[in-house]
Amino acid sequence: MSERLSARMRALATELTTLRVRSGLTTRGAARRLGISSASLNRTENAKREASTEELGGMLAVYGATTDDRRAVLELAGELPVPGWLGMAPDPAALARFEAQATTIVDFAPTSVPGLLQTAQYARAAQAQSMAFGTALEQRVSARVGRQAVLSKLSAPEYVAFLDEAVLRRPVGGGVAMAAQIRWLISRARQSNVTVRVVPFRHGGYRNPGRFAVLRFRKSSPLVYLEHEGSSGFLDAPEHVELFTAITATIASAALDHIDSVNLMTRIAADHDRS
């Protein structure tokens, strides 16, 4: 049975592990330099133990943390007791790390193609709507496209994306770019671990709470990721996971199956070609 651990504590554990590995230190070597046992460090890196302020300071020094690294670690450590983790901008760094650890990801996208399935051209057009330009825009696009490697790795998660038909009809980046995006969705849907399902207009209304994803893990409790302008983040309470699991079931009942979804996407791509 998975053990419930807060999203913040898990994110902090991953951040500290990343810094140690980047420094070239083994767990044993780092523990020796920090003056703690290897078992204690292992528990900290597995989010089973909360490091003291002194230990965190030592880790940041021993691992050669940058100013940005220090800020990220201290922000996480300062809010560990609080359940959930909201108030972030969309696509927080922790999301990519949780995606890399997940065994299954169910993604609901009512207004835009999910980040794990976007082409670079679509991502660039979508990010431009957030007033990102120049270097900042390209960094966001690169980060978003880079996340997609998780779907092709050896131990890739099972990924299911539910899209509203409106996502496919709206020509983000223009008709040519949108046709290419839809054909990319179709090619991704041919992967054994990827399923794309569309909620068609003809279904009428259905329960739509906005963009969210439910991530499940082999040894840790599930998380819900919410993405809303100015208040994205994670929910980790069991009742929230149950709520969004139930919402997913209602969306699934409204969506076309995999084959019919691919057929609909093929027709919509042709419509964009003609536009």
Automatic annotation (TrEMBL):
Q: Please give the Gene3D superfamilies that the UniProt record associates with this protein.
A: lambda repressor-like DNA-binding domains
Q: Name one GO molecular function term.
A: DNA binding
Note the InterPro entries from the entry. Answer: Cro/C1-type_HTH, DUF5753, Lambda_DNA-bd_dom_sf
Read off the SUPFAM superfamilies from this record: lambda repressor-like DNA-binding domains
Every HTH cro/C1-type domain range = 16-70
SMART domains assigned: HTH_XRE
Alphabetical UniProt keywords: DNA-binding
Q: Which domain of life is it from?
A: Bacteria
Q: Does the keyword DNA-binding apply?
A: yes
The name under which this protein is listed is Putative DNA-binding protein
